[in-house]
Design goal:
With 283 residues, the chain is mainly α. It is built from twelve helices and no strands.
């Protein structure tokens, strides 16, 4: 439902970054500062911990982001449309700040191309919600639909949280347990659910709106949204394949093996697809 007028013919990202208050940029900057301080505190104290955090300190900030965005999306969706603006004003800058920080401390140092592209694309898709006028623009006047779509998508961060817990168990336990089975089952079910959820959003929520966006000259806007949802769906397919590579039993029953990073779901995010940024010596 179109509920308000919006700035016709102007890119939502132009509306976002031309906002005279620059509230979105300030909030992202503050959250980035908090994330960076938190991250470096974890790095500083982690060598004293005899646990996996010492080898992978980035997981802590990732887990905080996953839990807060998942719970935030769920609570606001339950509370109703009157609370939707809270998502754009606070949770979107928070999430964009995390993605930018993760690019700085993880994606670039590890040449993790897939993660780099994922973080940029997701931030690009969701950042206009950080300012109400930009949210109206990206929704062709229906900002509540855009808030709803964003929050439903962020419910998928649940799998990031369970994947991190599963990784922790594989690093700290030496035998199978009901807890490991439960977390693994939730993780596998979550990744599978993501595939169906994003397929639904693409087919039934975004695709039918293409003609309206095309008519208004906003085809690039809906195209970016489709790319973000389809990309996330394909990544979910990939991680289901990773978990089921050696069968369902292998995914659900703990095995004390020295796995590669991709087999170990060292996700929150690492891919075998990398670009070597080291300068090549000329002959």
């Amino acid at each position: 439902m179109v509920d308000e007028e919006y700035e016709f013919g102007v890119s939502p990202w132009h509306v976002l970054f031309s906002d005279p208050s620059h509230q979105f940029e300030w909030r992202v900057a503050v959250y980035m500062l908090l994330f960076l301080v938190f991250h470096f505190v974890v790095i500083y104290i982690s060598p004293n911990w005899k646990n996996p955090i010492a080898e992978r300190p980035t997981v802590v900030a990732g887990q905080v982001h996953a839990i807060i965005t998942t719970l935030g999306a769920g609570v606001i969706l339950y509370a109703g449309v009157d609370y939707y603006p809270i998502w754009g004003e606070h949770l979107i800058p928070f999430s964009c700040a995390y993605f930018m920080c993760d690019i700085i401390w993880f994606a670039i140092p590890n040449s993790a191309v897939v993660i780099f592209i994922h973080h940029l694309l997701i931030s690009l898709c969701h950042c206009p919600l950080g300012v109400e006028k930009a949210a109206l623009s990206i929704g062709l006047g229906d900002k509540n639909f855009c808030y709803w779509l964003s929050m439903v998508g962020y419910l998928a961060e649940f799998t990031t949280a369970t994947t991190n817990v599963r990784w922790w168990i594989t690093k700290t336990r030496k035998e199978h347990s009901i807890f490991f089975f439960t977390i693994s089952a939730l993780t596998l079910a979550g990744w599978i659910a993501r595939i169906f959820m994003f397929a639904y959003l693409v087919i039934f929520e975004l695709y039918p709106r293409i003609p309206a966006y095309k008519e208004k000259g906003y085809l690039s806007t809906i195209s970016i949204a489709l790319a973000g949802h389809i990309g996330t769906m394909l990544l979910s397919v990939y991680w289901v394949r990773v978990m089921l590579r050696k069968g369902v039993k292998s995914a659900l029953v703990y095995r004390d093996l020295k796995r590669t990073e991709s087999e170990n779901m060292l996700f929150a995010a690492k891919s075998n697809l990398k670009i070597d940024l080291t300068p090549k010596k000329s002959n």
